[in-house]
Amino acid sequence: MDILTLLPFIVLIGAMFLMTRSAKKKQAAAAQMRNDMQPGTGVRTIGGMYATVKEVHDDTVLLEVAPGVHAIYAKNSIGAVLDDAEYNRIVHGDDQELDADGTVVPDDASSLTGESDAAEVAKIDLAKDDAADDAEPGDAAAKDVKDAKDVKDAKGESKTDGDADSK
């Protein structure tokens, strides 16, 4: 056989090997994470429920889902083991500063512009034009109707007495 005919099969087998290898690495990392759980750590289940680990057994975990409410879950149902700061932020709403340097990000952009920029911004004039106030409302409507008739006449679309408005 020629090597060129076997090349697609070799590439396909190599790609399958690489995909299964990465999937096995992910499964091993997840199993290691589940085995490293200790009582008192916060976890998120694959269903999205946050709880605290109370006891760890061979295949099961006793979780406290609310104060005084305990439930037994399979170890495979633990999606992530959370560190204490993240668990407290999500469950208890503790807003701890994550930045070590203490920088504060403003909620709006007003503090990003200086006071001198605010004075230089031109104000928009929302008042009506004096010329528009002098003209009567009926004059503008009559002018629009006349313009529409001129356009129809130019196209040769003027109506006769028996024509209807709808098409």
What does this structure look like?
With 167 residues, the chain is α+β, with helices and mostly antiparallel strands. The chain has helices at 3-35, 84-91, 115-120, 130-134, 137-155, and strands spanning 42-45, 50-56, 60-66, 69-74, 78-82. The chain has five helices and five strands, in the order H-E-E-E-E-E-H-H-H-H. The protein has a five-stranded antiparallel sheet. Strand 1 (42-45) and strand 2 form a beta hairpin.
What's the structural blueprint in terms of helices and strands?
Blueprint (H helix, E strand, L loop, with lengths): L2 H33 L6 E4 L4 E7 L3 E7 L2 E6 L3 E5 L1 H8 L23 H6 L9 H5 L2 H19 L12
Antiparallel strand pairs: 1-2, 1-5, 2-3, 3-4
Features:
167 residues, 17% strand, alpha+beta, flat, 43% helix, five-stranded antiparallel β-sheet
In short:
With 167 residues, the protein is α+β, with helices and mostly antiparallel strands. It has helices spanning 3-35, 84-91, 115-120, 130-134, 137-155, and strands at residues 42-45, 50-56, 60-66, 69-74, 78-82.
User: What's the SSE pattern?
Assistant: HEEEEEHHHH
Low-confidence parts lasting 5 or more residues at pLDDT below 50? none
Largest sheet entry? 5 strands, antiparallel
Given helix and strand content, the structural type is alpha+beta
In helices, the fraction of residues equals 40-55%
Q: Helical stretch count? A: 5
| Strand runs, count | 5
Cα-atom Rg, whole angstroms? 37 Å
Q: What general outline do the C-alpha atoms trace?
A: flat
Average pLDDT, rounded to a whole number, is: 76
As laid out across the biggest beta sheet, the strand order is: 4-3-2-1-5
Percent in strands: 15-25%
Distance between the termini: 75 Å
